[in-house]
Amino acid sequence: MRAILTVCRIEVARIFSLKPAFAVLIVASVIYAGFYPQPYRTEALRDVPIAVVDLDGTDSSRELARRVDASADVAVRAVFPDQASATQDIYRRNLHGVLVIPQFFERDLLHHRQSPVALYADASYFLIYQRLSGGVTAVARSMGAEVETARLIAAGVDPVLAAAAADPMPLTAVTLFNPQGGYATYILPAAFVLILQQTLLIGVGLLGTYRNDELSAELSASAGPAAVVGGKLLAYLILEAFIMSFYLIALPYLYNIPRLGAPLTIFVFALPFALAVSALGLVLAGLFRDPLTVQLVSAALGIPFLFLAGFSWPTEAIPPFLHAVATLLPSTSAINGMVAVSQMGASIPDVRQPFLILWALAAVYAAIAILLESRAGGRWSRHDGAQHAT
Amino acid sequence: MMAKGRLRPGFLVVFRREFDRFSRRRLLLFLTTVLPLLLMGVLAVVFSAGLATRLPIAVLDLDGTDLSRTIVRTVDATPDTAVTRRVSDLAEGRQLILSGDVRGLLMLPRNLERDVYGGRRPEVVFFYNTQTMTSGNLVLRGVNSAVPAVAAGIRLSLRTAEGQPLEAAQAALAPIPVQVNPLFNPTLNYAHFLLAALLPSVLQVIVVTTMAYAVGLDVETSHRLRVLRRLGGGLWPAMAGKILPYTLLFLVVLGIADWVLFGVLDMPLRGNRYLLILAGILFILADQFIGVLLALLLRPMASAISIGTLLMAPAFGFMGIGFPRIGMNAFAYHWGQLIPGTWYLMARIDQTIRGTPLYLSWTPIAVLVFMVLLFASLTALRLEVIRARRRPLPIQQTTVEGASE
Domain range for residue B286? Predict the structure, then answer.
């Protein structure tokens, strides 16, 4: 136990004294916290610019265009005499759609005929397309319902019944956990977990690959491999207690992201996550042995890891064998579990599957790390720290 | 020009020397080829399904009539949703959503059928999880097409029962239908679109960090930098000989990725493919020079790689693929403009799905050309400064030499 504490003390001191490790574990964590969320700060895409081609030029057609412009999703930025005039602006990305209101729009409405309009929406950016088609369709539907109700009332139907006939079974869609459907609320909690994993992984990898004179002297004296790994894990746990509470509790608060989970539950879930990632970092350090290799190989892993977690892209659509392999990464279980705990207010029993997987990963990686450490320990005593050469 | 001795210095000498290095430094070869191909392969498999279909939802049917069963059947029949669970109360449904077993819960209220035909407008409620946005939106789309379809059938039967002709009744259902025509991407395949943008983003991180490493190896001692310049017989040939081997390798990697996208996954390639290749070359060169500059400006090499990672790893968000750039705040918008990948992805989308006419395609290309020229000049400048600083005496001579090259 004493050996564990000694190793832990040495390792905590190294976090602050070893410049590359300090840069990744603390400086990078702070910079990412401010930098990464910037693209998503506005939460929602609003006022996507479109053009209107009004071939009718009546009160009704102008009313429709006005309502489309007034909606939160779409803004009418230009009025063109024909659709072709808008093409160039669409290719230049100045406009992202054209709403064509055909001639006789009003007349057909007055004659109780269907009076369709056409929307040409830029589908080369997915969210833009979603906003445009959703926004314009909603405006046309509500205007259509008004027209239909007015017709029925004009025909002498009781207003209540007229509304019922226009919409006998309204569908109410209730959003859970992210009421505004905000993009930052959606992506940031998951991204924060990934950033925590990547900085800790690289940091531990660097700490494990740079030479460690103090520890090797201490090692030969008393501590066995298990004590070394235990002491290091304890040191990283102390560090992550601060960094994780910053990322999982302070940052959501600062960025106005709703958090339903109790801090205690969040910490309970974060414990196996921090352990699993730290232990995996020790394993990687034992395998790569060179700090530059650790840095270079892990640099590009973030993006694939995020999509492997089945968060942005549903797990159901990921081939099962790949998903099984991805379970070996702490982020896969941690992202889904942590989002459920912290954003959706799940209890630990609700997320017991990812919770248990994280504990299992922590145990397995710690065991491998001990194994590697005992082998390296033999080498250390023989060469006495001469292994580091680039 | 400065040649003396047997080995004739020049571009080719440095070029060959760099290729020889790959056989000695396995890590370098691994980073430039195996790692990006591996990561791209993993992403391609993640998105191989192309569409996410039949996402599981739960149903709480408190009515249990023909109508409610019809709704459940219709919801189950949409491509987006599959009814996998029946629950007996809301708490059970909530628990299933929390554990991720289902993506939404459809609640059909008691006396639904009776109230619908009685004109009391009962509400059908769909709870869906927008914390996971993609799947949330997909299940909503499924329910949003299924329930109104059932409602439309009821409205039609209500009207025809009152003696309205079928045609008029149908016209009355939706007085202002919107025909939505997706421009440029008729299949609306989100997965392949996202994948096509993710592959260059992964490559971008690797190009910058690997170049910082490869050049860092030469900058570690001033001696090595001089040797490199001597071998190249001047600043520009040495730079070209050092950088182009990597350009070629990264181009091959990008080419393989694109072959998979356009050849195997059948992504549309509507624009000018030569322009696409040109944009790819410029994109890789611009990223390479960023890596080179980092290695020349920051010592030790580890810091250059760290800063390269810090700049490029979060770049994907700033390039406006998931969340479009027109919706970003000013900082994110302008920061995105400084990233070569932003312009490359613009050119790429132009020349693949959008099929932008040639005369409207040049903006991103021009920006990339400007970036390459700017970063290359800065690199040359920085190299001159390093040289001048190392040999403080013949400063004038150095500047003259530099100017003549």
Answer: 11-47+189-404
